[in-house]
Amino acid sequence: MASVAISPAVTLDSATLNPQALEKFTPRLLAWFVEHGRHDLPWQTLDDPYKVWVSEIMLQQTQVKTVLAYFEPFMQRFPTVFSLAAADWDEVAPYWAGLGYYARARNLHKAAGQVVLQYGNAETLTIEWPLTLDKWLTLSGIGPSTAGAILALGLHQFGVIMDGNVKRVLCRVFGIWGDTQKPVINRLLWSLAEQLTPQQAQTGATAAYTQAIMDLGATLCTPKKVLCMYCPMQDICTSFNTGHVYDLPQKFAKKPNPTRAGWVIIIQNSKGEWLWQQRPPSGLWGGLWTVPITEEAPLINQLLKQFPQTQVSPKQAQLLYHGFTHFNWELQPIIIELKPRRVLPKIVRDLLTEFGKQTGQIKNNSEHSLAPKQPIQWLTPTAASSIGIPKAMQQLIKQQTAHLPEH
Ligand code: SF4
Predict the structure, then answer these.
(1) pLDDT by residue (tens digit) across 352-374?
(2) Per the domain annotation, does 144 fall within a domain?
(3) Residue 231 CA to ligand 1 centre (angstroms)
(4) Strand intervals (E) in 284-398
(5) What is the pTM of this model?
(6) CA 158 to CA 390: how far, in whole Å?
(7) Is there a domain that residue 25 lies in?
(8) Which of 25, 172, 238 is the best mutation target for the ligand 1 pocket, counting ligand atoms within 8 Å of the beta carbon and taking the most?
(9) Is the CB of 169 under 6 A from ligand 1?
(10) Other beta carbons within 10 Å of 124
(11) Is 406 designated active site?
């Protein structure tokens, strides 16, 4: 086992982790879970690995209370892995819109197809679910922690999880200092988690432990306002006993994300519909619909020259902000009103081709034809709210509809 810096002056390896905590942690956690754990989450159903899988993907980077609003509608529309695999991405996207991190949904959709193909029986509509970590790891979007959770919670197999809650609890109880992103700390945490997770999967102990450690991290051992007074680990918790609860896990300043400026262009026809375009399948907001967005200032200058009536009023000038994992977008809304005509003006087509060169067809085009290469459609802001659009577009609609001219 690798050595880990436990404080600036002391070094620790797993052999020197608090032996009392190693011995008492799991039984205490299981006993606490019986009375205080969460037992009523909609994905906590016996023998439904699909529900556990969907919930685990939704829960990545997202809190339970947010996921609760998305999980049931998703399950009603796609109750089985077969129904999800058979759906088009355009049918799936609206059920994820607003949850963010859309690559998760695209991978889930893709992996549903892989599961049906590799493990499904089309006649009986049953799945012979994979029972090993290695097999789960071959599916799109499944990492070791998600696979561990599905094995433990959905399939009653031995599986180990390592999400943010688990890292926080283990770092605090065992007094682990250092950057949890660093391989040396990460390896220590995985090894510790493996040691603490009960092997008796068939009795339900692995599943109970898995849910319990997430619950402890989500309800008592939280990032802020930690409720140590109710915690069963107090006397064995290193951070509590040394007064370092809020210092662990250690935080390391990340380089701030750069901010990029651009424009969101609302192109409105005489019916009050906006022109929407589907983003390419991979990349930012992949597969979702947005109004045209560009960072090209010369294109905007041309646009404003050709549509001199396009005024950006102070209210319309409200900027739209969106933070991605690697940069922040600061977008200036611009509104162009098109008169009825047979073709879209060239400058608008130039804007639309900014998105990429994929092929597609215009949908329900009303008064403007000659579609550019990528899928576009005219939709009222209200209608657009029910297709797969990112949260930033929902904000744009909310922000702008109150100020647009009546039709
Ligand atoms: S005693 Fe406090 S810091 Fe330690 S595990 Fe419990 S809640 Fe977390």
Answers:
(1) 776 543 333 334 444 444 444 56
(2) yes
(3) 6
(4) 289-290, 293-294, 320-323, 328-337, 376-379
(5) 0.77
(6) 37
(7) yes
(8) 172
(9) yes
(10) 7
(11) no
